[in-house]
Amino acid sequence: MKVGFAGLSHLGLVYGLATAAKGMEVLGFDADAKLLAALRRGVFPVNEPGLKKLWEETRGRVSWSDRPEALADCGLVFLSLDVVTDARDRSDPRPLEKLICSTLPRLRAGTVVVLLSQVDPGFTRRILFPAGKKAGLRVFYQVETLVFGRAVERALQPERFIVGSVNPSAPLPEPLRRWHAAFGCPVLVMGLESAELCKIAINFFLVSSVCTTNTLAEVAALAGADWAEIAPALRLDARIGPKAYLNPGLGVGGGNLPRDLQTFRRLAGGQADLSLVDGWLGCSGHHRDWATRSYQRLLRDAGISPRRAKVGVWGLAYKEDTAFVKNSPSLRFLEKATAAEKAVYDPVALLPKKIRGVRQVGQMADACRGADVLAILTPWPEFRQTDPAPALQTMKNRYVLDPYRVIPITRWRELGATCLTLGRN
């Protein structure tokens, strides 16, 4: 079976190569010829652990094309373009709509078309279904549940597939059933709008866990408790579970979770109680600014003027194992914290814009040299595996912000550093 993926952003690349890994022939379509040339060389526009290795293992079963007509050879085609968000975390579906208009008329009648892109409830029925019906195509929606930094793992070993259908009681078409069978996980079929809203529902429960954990960890520090001691007890509670989001962090980052909160606000249309959503948004903003507040506290207690302070930052991405900086706590800290100099290092992510007084450096040690404060704002594995002693020796003062406890607090104290972290005073 030959499977097509139209739109080769993060979503299409990961699912496309995962499909090839299951033994199927894959055609990746994108109108960007430069992108395709890079992909043929194994150069990817996204950073994702395991993606290059997957490409090396499957390259004999994958071809690339900038011609939508090439998709006519595929009996199953996934529309797999990531939907970007703007500065206010609102979706912009126009590139996806353009992709739909350019590809669907080129497909053979009877082709099974599955929309993977995250869209607002109603999009598939309003936009994709009429276009598919006109072209004689069988149209479905499928929820993507990838996680940045773990996308390859989750694509190869999915927990379940969630499929939206115009007629949920009817059997799925054979090409889609064969594709599902290759992954060997449960398949849940429901109405189109139910599947579209299901993705938002999943993310709402994640946001709820993140905000609850962050709030409890903050109060733990105020009460003289240690959140790291409390979390294991919650993991052993069957109603919460071993995989719950119980590690405190700096708000809700990235684009998907904030986007869903804004989407839900529009869907409610003033007819539903949004106090919970408003609370999550306020909670996320409060915790995202933890680094700025803690930095100010350190300088105040040390009697250092912010306008003379030098700050080193490890981590720019909103989370480890990705290059994305959308809603990154580190980026917000670099923009908001007052300092004479700020130097930031990240293994992958780049500053998306110039920020006054901020320079990006190529080595961890370069960010620390002459600094009064070191802030570790992305928990990269590289940082966990580093002995911080050499970096501290180059600093002017040994003040550290380590919210994720990348380095054990006992180690910071052995080195004579004053460290502030989440969940403990």
Short synopsis of the structure:
The model has no long low-confidence stretch (mean pLDDT 94).
In CATH, what is the homologous superfamily of the largest domain? NAD(P)-binding Rossmann-like Domain
- Main β-sheet: number of strands, strand sense, barrel status? 8 strands, mixed
Summarize model confidence as the mean pLDDT.
Answer: 94
* Morphology call: globular
Q: Order of strands across the widest beta sheet?
A: 3-2-1-4-5-6-7-8
How would you classify the helix and strand content by structural class?
A: alpha/beta
What's the CATH class of the largest domain, please?
A: Alpha Beta
Instruction: Give the N-to-C terminal Cα separation.
Output: 58 Å
**What are the segments in which pLDDT stays under 50 over at least 5 consecutive residues?**
none
CATH architecture of the largest domain: 3-Layer(aba) Sandwich
Reported by name, the CATH topology of the largest domain is: Rossmann fold
- Would you report the number of β strands? 14
Number of separate structural domains: 3
Multimerization state: single chain
Number of helices: 17
Task: Describe this entry's structure for a reader.
- The protein is α/β, with parallel strands linked by helices.
- It has three domains: 2-190, 3-Layer(aba) Sandwich (Rossmann fold); 200-286, N-(1-d-carboxylethyl)-l-norvaline Dehydrogenase, domain 2, CATH 1.10.1040; 289-420, NAD(P)-binding Rossmann-like Domain (Rossmann fold, 3-Layer(aba) Sandwich).
- It has 17 helices and 14 strands.
- It has helices spanning 10-21, 33-40, 51-58, 94-103, 123-134, 151-156, 174-181, 192-222, 227-235, 256-268, 275-288, 290-302, 329-336, 364-368, 381-384, 389-393, 409-414; strands at residues 2-6, 25-29, 62-65, 76-79, 112-115, 138-142, 161-165, 187-191, 310-314, 341-345, 358-360, 373-376, 399-401, 418-420.
- The chain has an eight-stranded mixed β-sheet, sandwiched between helices. A six-stranded parallel β-sheet has the order 11-10-9-12-13-14.
- Strand 9, helix 13 and strand 10 form a beta-alpha-beta unit.
- The radius of gyration is 24 Å and the shape is globular.
